[in-house]
Write a structure and sequence with these properties.
By secondary structure, the chain is of the alpha/beta class. Helix content is 45%, strand content 9%. Helix 4 links the parallel strand 3 and strand 4. The chain is globular and about 45 Å long.
């Protein structure tokens, strides 16, 4: 489960966690140190850090700001921190992977699919390769970073 406000924990989060589901919360650039403990209280699985303010895929994250935010979150939790929003290229993924435990890509994959659909919105012969090529490039960026940091 992702992103239910902590104020609603009793209704869905706590029963979900009791049933064995992880509850993943979002932390954002505007989540301050006063709000962060509430966000992390019943979070499980990992923390999803939204790297930019605004619409997903609309801007590239600033790796130094993301690293600082991830470090701040990690001072409050032992959970892994995955970072998403605005990650579109292998270079973005590699830069984010330097400080984060995971990198989340969504809009770039949707765009890769949309670019390879026919006029009726159906997949073409190039749709799968467009997605797998992008995923391969992103993974190479992340894996190269993780190998250098090991």
């Amino acid at each position: 489960m992702v992103d239910l406000p902590p104020e609603e924990d009793a209704e869905l989060c706590l029963p979900a966690v009791k049933a064995g589901l992880n509850f993943i919360r979002l932390a954002t650039p505007t989540t301050d140190d006063k709000r962060l403990p509430a966000v992390l209280k019943n979070t499980s699985g990992f923390v999803y850090y939204v790297s930019i303010t605004g619409i997903t895929g609309a801007a590239a994250p600033d790796p130094s700001r993301v690293a600082a935010a991830v470090a701040r979150i990690k001072r409050h939790t032992k959970l892994p921190v995955a970072v998403g929003f605005g990650v579109r290229t292998a270079e973005h993924a590699a830069a984010i992977a330097n400080g984060a435990d995971g990198v989340v890509v969504g809009s770039a994959l949707v765009d890769a699919i949309k670019a390879r659909l026919d006029r009726d919105g159906k997949a073409t012969a190039g749709t799968t390769s467009a997605v797998t090529d992008l995923v391969s490039r992103l993974a190479a960026g992340v894996c190269g970073t993780k190998q250098r940091n090991s």
